Amino acid sequence: MEELLTMPVKEMARRIREGELSPVDAVEAHIRRIEEVNPKINAVVVPRFDEARKEAGEAAERLAKSRDNLPPLFGVPCTIKDTYAMKGYTWSGGVWARKDLKADFDATVVERMKAAGAIILGRTNVPEAAMFNETYNHVYGRTNNPYDLARGVGGSSGGEGAIVAAAGSPIGIGSDIGGSIRYPAAFNGVPGHKPTGGMVPGTGHFPEILGPLRPYCAYGPIGRTVADLAYTLPLIAGPDGKDGIVEKRELKPFDQVDLKKLRVFFFDYNGQAKTGADVRRAVAMAAGALTGQAAMVEHWVPEGIENSLQMWQAGMAQNPTPFLENLEGDEKIKLGREVVRFILRRSKITWPALGAALIEKPNKWLPGTGQKMLDLADDLRRRMSAKLGDDGVLICPVFPVPAPKHHHIWLDLIGIGYSGVINIMHFPATIVPIFRRADGLPVSIQVVAAKWNDHLTLAAAKRLEEIFGGWKPPERV
Questions:
Q1: Is-catalytic flag, 180?
Q2: How many CA atoms lie within 13 A of 158 on its CB side?
């Protein structure tokens, strides 16, 4: 595989700035790769190759005149999840009723990636309304795992995880309210970072996240290396004057963390969803690898974590906007009628989206149960924050198994609590691949820290990447 398709983002940006690499060559190499792999994996659903070539040519002309004051991602290709508004492009979010809708503005993260000099190659696939951890919809179809086409890519940033893993994009931007950056990163064997809630603006994201759910949803990068995540995160972070929960915080440098002072905790079972042997092995390998490199490594299962799924469900049940509204166009959807249409195979709504609308009502009928779980979540957040402090990380599963086969994710669905509870905590988490099975399927873990300690999760993940080798592109898609 040619060097450009495995080159880290920071290195690519440096070479372009110093005139060692043409942005035209960088863009063309990745377009060729997308054209090669996309017919099999269906990750990039709205290409913008002609526009990207034009922008690369303009970047090359600017370089020829001067290399002064170039932005940090100047000439670097990237991809963007289909949930973000991009002016002049369809903005369906996988929803049939929105398939012809075009955005008339750029989401904040899109604006910021453009301002940083990145060249957007296209938009990537998502589950319908971004509400499932397997990526398929009636607008664009299903996305396949580049390591095994019979397996899923996670969701909802599934297209991002797949195209980065397949070496078609150096960096992509996803979003995460229950694992939507972390599942695709883990299932596709690439690093991904869910920032602290309130670090990156969600302005221009569909579905719009409102009310108490806003700090649960985080917006962040999926890339080839952990250093790429750390390089990109500050470029999209900070207030935009529109998303009111975003705080102005100094992002501490991850490469200045003294690992010998880091405290490491780990567990491989939350008491609710049993994990498979692959995931248990990955957690053990990660914890073992840091033994002797960190100040301490200790097994710890936070009391109350066995209610992970219920806490996440209670948090999501606070949504002030009925989920069904995300699926509607000009015509209101009647849930009962749509269920009948689904049974008759005449619906343009997928079962996961329909299921999300159905389970919303029972959650609202049991407000007392939900409040009890929210109170438990607040208590867990306080205790975990105190235990982790400003020098501790937690290594744990992101899902009970590696990428399941298509349609099989339901068998382990209770395991979404491993990721979902981290959103309710507002904590940052970084995904890093640990090993690949004999069949080539990657197995990953997540590194979690207390709020605003993103630098700690990135530092620990970077060390694990160095030890185990990190992302390895598929030998063949």
A1: yes
A2: 34
